[in-house]
Amino acid sequence: PVANATITPGQPSSQVQAGDPVTLHCSVQVGSAPVTFTWLRNSHEVAQGPLLVLEDVELRHSGTYQCMATNQPDGHRVFQALSPEVELVVTPREHGDTAVAAGVSGFLLFLVLVLGVIIGLHQWH
User: Fold this and answer.
1) Where does the Ig-like domain lie (predicted)?
2) What's the angle, vertex CA 18, arms to CA 36 and CA 23, rounded to 5?
């Protein structure tokens, strides 16, 4: 029977920013083939397969993730193993730093232009 399902990276309270990629891998330490993997978010099925790839996470991807590994080694009995839960917290992307940098750059450019005009007028007189 399948046993010891784990998720890697398995950081509890994993916090990422919106737009970041997230990949979770599910594996088992014990289990004869074929083993199937089902991904759950907040106890609802969201995907199949050993990898859960979220290319561009959004706030709606926040939640508790768990992997369920299943096999049927004798063709009759079904065995399942649930991984420990992993909490994924998606936060809004910070745009403040970009706006501040653009504001500073714009001000410096303006300052250089004003100085150029002052120097030009001074030399003209």
Assistant:
1) 1-83
2) 25
* C-alpha gyration radius of the chain: 26
pTM comes to: 0.70
* Residue range 41-81, pLDDT digits in tens: 999 999 999 999 999 999 999 999 999 999 988 888 999 99
CATH number (3.40.920.10, 2.60.40.10, 3.30.1540.10, 1.20.1640.10) of 3-92 reads: 2.60.40.10
Residue that has been written with the tokens 């737009």 in this structure? 19
Question: Which residues have CB under 8 Å from 83's CB, separation 6+?
Answer: 5, 6, 7, 10, 26, 66, 67, 68, 69
